[in-house]
Amino acid sequence: MTAPGGTPARDKLQLRLALRDARTKRKLTQKDVADAMEWSTSKLVRIEGGNVGISVTDLKALLFQYEITDEAEVGRFVELARAAKKAAWWQPYRDYFPPEFITFLGLEASSIRLRQFQQLVVPGLLQAPEYIRVLMQLGSPPPEQQERGFAIRTQRQKLIADGGPEMFFIIDESVLFRQIGDQSVMRAQLLHLKELAARSNISIRILPFSVGVHPGMRESFEIFELSEESSNYALQIEGILRDRLFPEPSSETARYVDIFFRLEKLALPKEETPGIIDERLRHMT
């Protein structure tokens, strides 16, 4: 278990995974532990699921049950629990967005790797400011709603800072041609995309028109890899009316992970992305 760091959402995820790992290593069921602690089973389920926090008193009692008594190790668990309780940056926006979107923000902030396929627009994490502003006008929402949307998207982009998670993007070639805003907006966006493609923790690959029919044609989607555990993925699928979020591993998440890896085999190498963007810029009037 590593020390606290990153975001409260990431610390919360690390804590619940560490507690679950400690229980399974001792071959205890959730009911075994709940009975021994004189808790309801649902309480432990909620703690391990990240739906509720855990007090330091309860945490120490739980660690004792798992035979974790080393002072330094207990101290690391306690630090993690306290860090997980800090307010995340999106707390002020909870009243303005549905719970699924808040969960999405937490999953994205908690990920150790992000994988996204986008066939309509530049992925949100890679959008330039004026490109975002044009998209926020879709549907003519009130100005204050546009500003909230802009603020959240730019805040999300802080994940791109050095030391953030690994990010793998596959973008349909049509996105480079779809006019969002005027020529100056598109030119700034393409230059921004080229700059980001040079980052060490970001891979941006183009899926060319020449591949024809491919497995990602129906939907854009984002995959969140939450730990080094096998298949520990969450998923968001974009929709016209609403997005669909799958916060836990499932057959659905496994299917989209497979689709993403199939798309990687079709996409052009990331080393070619700057040249493709330059070619598009040369043909812009």
Automatic annotation (TrEMBL):
<dbReference type="Pfam" id="PF13560">
    <property type="entry name" value="HTH_31"/>
</dbReference>
<dbReference type="InterPro" id="IPR001387">
    <property type="entry name" value="Cro/C1-type_HTH"/>
</dbReference>
<dbReference type="InterPro" id="IPR010982">
    <property type="entry name" value="Lambda_DNA-bd_dom_sf"/>
</dbReference>
<protein>
    <submittedName>
        <fullName>Transcriptional regulator</fullName>
    </submittedName>
</protein>
<dbReference type="GO" id="GO:0003677">
    <property type="term" value="F:DNA binding"/>
</dbReference>
<dbReference type="InterPro" id="IPR043917">
    <property type="entry name" value="DUF5753"/>
</dbReference>
<dbReference type="Pfam" id="PF19054">
    <property type="entry name" value="DUF5753"/>
</dbReference>
<feature type="domain" description="HTH cro/C1-type">
    <location>
        <begin position="19"/>
        <end position="72"/>
    </location>
</feature>
